[in-house]
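For reproducibility, we list the full input for the pyridoxal-5'-phosphate complex.
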Amino acid sequence: MSDDEPGNGGAPGADGYDQARYTDGDRYEPLLSEKRSREVDVETPLPDAVTRDSLELPALSEPELSRHYTRLSQMNYGVESGPFPLGSCTMKYNPSFTEDIAGLPDAAIHPDRDPETMQGTLAVLAQLSDYLAQIGGMDGVTLQPPAGAAGEYTGTMITRAYHEENGEDRSEVLVPDSAHGTNFASAALAGFDVVELPSGDDGRVDIDALEGALGDDTALLMLTNPNTLGLFERDIVDIARMVHEAGGLLYYDGANLNALLGRARPGDMGFDIMHYNVHKTFATPHGGGGPGAGPVGVVEKLEPFLPAPRVRAVDGEGEPAYELFEPEQTIGKVHGFLGNWQVLVKAGAYIARLGDEGLADAGAKAVLNANYLAEQLDYEVPFGPFHHEFVASAGEQDAADVAKRMLDYGVHPPTTKWPETVEEALMTEPTEGENRRTLDQLAAAFNAVAGEDETTVASAPRRTAARRIDQVDAARHPRLSWHALDE
Ligand SMILES: *Cc1c(COP(=O)(O)O)cnc(C)c1O
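The corresponding predicted structure, in tokenized form, follows.
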């Protein structure tokens, strides 16, 4: 197909779009209403001013409909199509039994029901809170935040409330330069001044820089451990002591908990607050804007500030066994009701199915896979050995071009150009779900691209549903409905 023919989103031609145009390069799958539609009269008791006389609705047979959605799914790439080593995102496979459990009739529950009539739901939530507290070495957990970033925001608001309660005015949150962008944003949103800490030559926290930054204004240090380079902060116990001596709190960005599962706990390292991304570590759906959950765990002294309501077991035998309560100094609500229940129930099912041994095994395999893959690459891989992920450097090549070219080899590329501590970063996280054969295929794709000339790499992708898109325009002027195409 030549470049001037319509691409994804191009205008349809005459009627008869029964066949998707599956060619190399751009494909076009028409909208249902473009395929075949018919006018339907509308009868409604609503006032004329707000209604139409007729509606144009798609008129398709079941096979046509089924093929439409199958074709759309084939134009996409997901963890069910192939490996998805998108670093820091932990795109692990979501086992389908968790969907079965979330789909049970008893799991479909109206959130406004009287707590006495939803004891089973509360039991599941209490159990998940307990699992997460054990995994993280925390004393209390809220399941309410709907994402990792929302968990960070909750943690920084708890930090604010804690210092205020102690009559202290602490305005600064320290964040290492290798941290996830949400750390900076969450701290700023909670009203703190963000102080960026430079990394040392070994890719870890620079202890001297930390010493210099700590002071009476320090409210919190936010750390990711292993950090986004996949490196464990070996000085974590000293770091925790320094922060606490300065009167600050220590926050653990636990979005990527894979490497620690069943082996080490942030609470034991001296962290006071942490969030968990169940949609990364605990195999719940992730991406495409779907709902996630970012529960937050805290040590005992911070429990009174957790969001309301919380679930607790009622003392003594009998019914009801669980109740909701409002912590005394709660920061309020950070999401509706008890959080994203349908996501949480899947995380609970996953943890229960794996158990202690299974979780530790998943973590070990995630670490083994990252180190194995790093060894296979022709690209330079600074630092190491690694935990759940590693960062290779595309060197002379442009990391974003490398990523697009990898799509032509049928694999999802790594995260690119971040962290900035590595030039042309290719941040790669294979996860525990891939076997050696798949890892070898992945390495072969990386290495094939590493050996290609600039023109080939810079003109990729060629074999995807959409070719090069204008990323800046797509971000600045998103077309969120097909009406925008008409305009
Ligand atoms: C993904 C991620 C986050 C943010 O999580 P969201 O659920 O996307 O808001 C924070 N920190 C790290 C290290 C992450 O990888």
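The longest strand covers residues 218-223. Residues 88, 147-149, 180, 182, 224, 253, 255-256, 277, 292, 294 surround pyridoxal-5'-phosphate (CB under 6 Å). Both points were considered when choosing residues for closer inspection.
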